[in-house]
Every structure is written in C-alpha cells, then in structure tokens.
Amino acid sequence: MPNEKFYITTSIAYANTAPHMGHAYEEFLADAIARYKRNCGFDVFFLTGTDEHGVKICRTAEKNDISVQSFVDKNAEEFQKFYASIDSSFDGFIRTSNKEQHWPGAQALWKKLSEKGDIYKSKYTGLYCVGCEAFVGERDLVNGLCPHHNAPPEKVEEENYFFRLTKYAEEIRGKIEQDEIRIIPEARKHEILALLEEGVADVSFSRPEGQIPWGIPVPEDQNQVMYVWCDALANYISALGYGTEDETNFSKYWPADLHVIGKDILRFHALLWPAMLLSAGISLPKEILVHGFLTSGGKKMSKTVGNVVDPKEYVEKHGSEALRSYFSREISPFEDGDFTDEKFLESYNANLANGIGNLVSRVIKMTEQYFEGKVKMKDTPEVPFKRKVETVSGVEEAAGVPFKYCINQEILPAYHEHMSRYELNKAADTVWALIKKLDGYVTDYEPYKLVKTDKEKTEAILANLLFGINVVADILSPFMPATSEKIREVLGATFAEDGNPVAFSVKHMDNPLFPRK
Ligand code: ME8
After folding, report:
1. Average pLDDT over the chain, rounded to an integer
2. 454-496 pLDDT, tens per residue?
3. Which protein residue's CA is at the shortest distance from atom 31 of ligand 1?
4. Cross-strand bridge partners of residue 155
5. DSSP states along 480-515
6. Distance from Cα 103 to the centre of ligand 1, integer Å
7. Which of 19, 143, 276, 431 lies at a C-alpha separation of 20 to 30 Å from 368?
C-alpha cells in the first residue's frame, strides 16, 4: 500500500516527572507499530510529546521553587532524550506550552465549539482529583479516595465554562458500537459502552485564571484558562498545524489512524475527544489502542512500596534493544504486564544471548570456516526442514516441509496477521519461532559434520540459514531496529531484483550480539 498515510500518536506525558516504565512501554508500542507500517510502505507520521499544563505541574514547580516554564523545559528535554535513547522514530514532538505550535490550534478548536453553541458558562460545584487532572463524582471514589492516586479529591466551587458532552453521547455510542471508532481490545470497547450506559454529564472545560495561572487562555475570556484535558487533546491536531497558517500536514495526515493510550485515559479519548471533534466538524480518529499497566512483582509501581523500576537505568545497563526485546516478548499490549529484574535477565538470556545471538554467531562462524565467508543461494535440490517442529499455531508440521515454503506460507502470514491486529507479542513469538526452527535445522543437518563429506549440500544448508536470518532481521526490525541493522551488516547479502538475497559475504563478528548475563 505505498503512499497511503498512517498517522499514529502516543498520549502526551505530564511533564512533571522523569519518564517512567509506563511511558517507555507506550512509546515503544507506538514506535514498533510506526516502524512496521513504514516497512509496509505507508507514509507514516508518528507523534509524541509532553502535556505541560494543569494543576499538578503548576504545584510541583512551585514546590520545587522553580518557574513553571523552566520546570517543564527541563522535563520535556528529559522525555525527548529518553525517547531518542530507546530509538523511538517519532516524526513530531509536541509540547503544549509551545505558544507557536500548540496554542493556536487549541484556541481555534475552542472557538469552533463555542461558535457551535456547545460551550456555556455555569457554576461548578464538585470534586477534582489533581492526580487525574479530572473532575470526579462520588461514584468514582473508593472510601472517599481516588482509587488511582489513593488521595482525596479537592472540593471545587467556581464559575467555569462547560462543554456539552451530553449532546454527542448517543452519536458516539453508535460510532463505537459500529467500530467507526474502533476500540482495541474489545473489552475496552465494552467498558466505554457501559460507561455511556450509566450516563454522562457535561464537562467543566475551564478553570478561573486566579486559581490556576498556568494554562492556555480561553479565547473570549482572559479570566479563564482551558481545562488541561481540553488543551491536551488538541495536541493531536495542533501538531499538524491545525489553526495555523500552514495546515498542510493537517490536510495530509488527519484523521489519526491510531491513538495509542493507557487504560486510565480511555474515557477522555473515546468520549470527550470524539465529542469535541464532532462539535467542531472534524473527522474522527479511526482506532484507539488501549494498553494495560506495567506492574512490578504483580504490584503497581510505587515509591512507598519501593518497587519502582527506572527505565533509564535499564537502558544504561543493558541497552535499549534489551528493553525493547522485553517489551516485545513479555508484555501483551492488551493486558497488564509485569517487569522485574529477575524476569528481565531470564528473558535476556533465553531470547537474546541463547536465542538470536547464539544462532547468528554459529552460522556466521561456520560460513567463515568452511566457505571463507562467501556462499550463494543455489538451484541445487531443496534441503527441507527435516524434523517435525511445532508450528507457530502449535500444530505439528510434517517433516520435509520445503525451507522457503515454511517461511513464506507459515511464518510470514502469521507475523503479518498478528501485527495487523497489534498483537505485538504474538508477532514477536513468530520471529522467535523462526529462530527456533533455524536452530533445529542446524541440529538436524549437523553442517559441522556434513562439511567433511558433502560440501555442496553444506553450502545449500548455510545459504538457507543465512536466508532465514535475513528474514529474522526484516521481521525483527519494528521491535529491535538496531539489532536488525547489525545482523544485516554481518550478513553482507546481495539482493536480486525481487528483493530476495542471492549471495552472502559475511563479516567477522568480534563479539556476540548479546553476551550472557
Ligand atoms: O495521562 N504502565 O499523562 P501521564 C503503563 N497527560 N502505562 C502507564 C503507566 C503504567 N504503570 N502509568 C501511566 C497523561 N501510563 C496525560 C495524557 S493525552 C492527550 C494526555 C500511561 O504522564 C498512561 O496510561 O499520566 C498514559 O497513556 C501515559 O502513560 C501517560 O500518562
């Protein structure tokens, strides 16, 4: 599908802390999908960024005795650096305190809603959870506390602008039911439909400037600043130039093909955001992928429990590829996933040191030893997979399956099927199923013995293995781009016009890809 566009976004992280494991995972998830879509020929725009307004940020800066702008500047830089350190291939990084890039879009959107008659002034009396940056009702609380932050909400009584969310609730329900806005996984779709069933209320959409001086001014009323979610959601269009003189990217990339978000912010993305867009007459995002939370030892990461794992430390100690490999293999995008040091090292040794690292070293070494590093794909008789191996789908496949048939008819279709459903961990399983098959191929044919009696067949076997490793590099690239690049370098493949390798001139490897830990 060359030239078709694909616009993918992450949520924008609050710039009031350093990036945590949840941010790292979400960025990885969106990046792997963006890379996959680029591999498929899409014209991808991948957006990430930081959410820099709201009460939380304002207060944390005050507590640290630093101006809010310096505070968010410092944190936004941390996020950008961190995302670059895990090889995120983002095309845009939006900061909501950016007056040139973000404010015009957020204000233009507000004006549209106001012109439509969907914004009105009223008195708000209720509760506000600063942690969630959300107005909450009694029914959202457990024993009077916000269950996400274990803290009591604040009582608020003020004159605010409200947005007529209720006007759009029915239309949105229909669109979610019909998958016009597709919420993935299904369980999250049902969750939001259940919420709609309970009934929704209009949303307080601004705060008095006197209460929170840090925010985007409401266009017609300088005494009010926009509610942080109203401002933050607009990032998805402001980053494309919406509301500015140059709307080229907005025309080209909107609507979003995929918003990647965590489970706690579903209602903002599946209700409030579509309602704002409907009111403004802007088309709706197509899909919302809702990931779970990362826990540590099965518990929510928390400073009090002392189980917070810092992603930066892992990148510094083990490299970003090791972290990306863990996210790919061990976490299902649709459920909560666990991260502990023990599991991390276990996964590293099994999948990287013993798995892919060992296979590549062995095959490269044999090619160097027996053929001075050079082999060609030959038209000699096929050397099929010899033994019964478990297929990706768990069914035993008959012995004698031709080598390329197995890759083209079994591995690749399963891989693409999973990727198209954003089942990244299952797609990564198919990569490792191929690695396992290639390992089995070496064990079965014992090229290190065969070379003494049949050099020609040994060359065909090694060429097949190098061909298979080249496929591994291709399908691994969304998950582990740097490893994929390294493998391609050592393979030294020459390609035919159809894109298939015809010969290899391998490079010597001084070190294994992943030393054992
Ligand atoms: O919600 N595991 O920002 P944020 C996995 N600024 N993901 C997690 C997580 C965890 N333990 N904790 C948080 C915001 N996340 C808003 C978004 S978008 C217009 C505004 C996810 O920094 C969370 O679900 O609190 C969200 O998707 C992202 O990290 C940023 O969270």
Report:
1. 94
2. 999 999 999 999 999 999 999 999 999 999 999 999 999 999 9
3. 13
4. 127
5. -HHHHHHHHHHH-EEE-TTS-EEEEEPPP-SS-SS-
6. 22
7. 431
